[in-house]
């Protein structure tokens, strides 16, 4: 799927935030991996911890506050590299 240009619900432009979202979330994940040497310990959702996920923090930093825009970023599957 291609990167969405606008949010389907509120028509807000989100395409300019895609690359920073991917870069910042990968940087945060790599930083957490360096702190935690166990490669098999994948951090998804910890029900005992109420902190936001890495992706949630990055979306806050990018200024995406509406849940419809956040959905567009989180649910997009980047398949264009596999299609070529």
From TrEMBL:
Task: From the Swiss-Prot or TrEMBL record, give the protein name.
Answer: DNA-directed RNA polymerase subunit N
UniProt entry keywords in alphabetical sequence: DNA-directed RNA polymerase, Metal-binding, Transcription, Zinc
List GO molecular-function terms, semicolon-separated.
Answer: DNA binding; DNA-directed RNA polymerase activity; zinc ion binding
The organism of origin for this protein:
viral metagenome
Gene3D superfamilies per the record? Answer: Homeodomain-like (1.10.10.60)
Under Pfam families, the record lists: RNA_pol_N (PF01194)
GO biological process entries: DNA-templated transcription
Asked whether the keyword Nucleotide-binding is assigned, the reply is no
Cellular component, GO annotation? DNA-directed RNA polymerase complex
Check the record and name the InterPro entries matching this protein.
RNA_pol_su_RPB10, RPABC5/Rpb10
């Amino acid at each position: 799927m291609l990167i969405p240009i606008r949010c389907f619900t509120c028509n807000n432009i989100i395409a300019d935030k895609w690359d920073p979202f991917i870069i910042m979330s990968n940087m945060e994940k790599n930083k957490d991996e360096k702190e935690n040497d166990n490669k098999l310990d994948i951090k998804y959702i910890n029900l005992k911890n109420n902190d936001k996920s890495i992706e949630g923090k990055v979306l806050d930093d990018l200024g995406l506050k509406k849940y419809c825009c956040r959905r567009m970023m989180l649910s997009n599957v980047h398949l264009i590299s596999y299609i070529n």
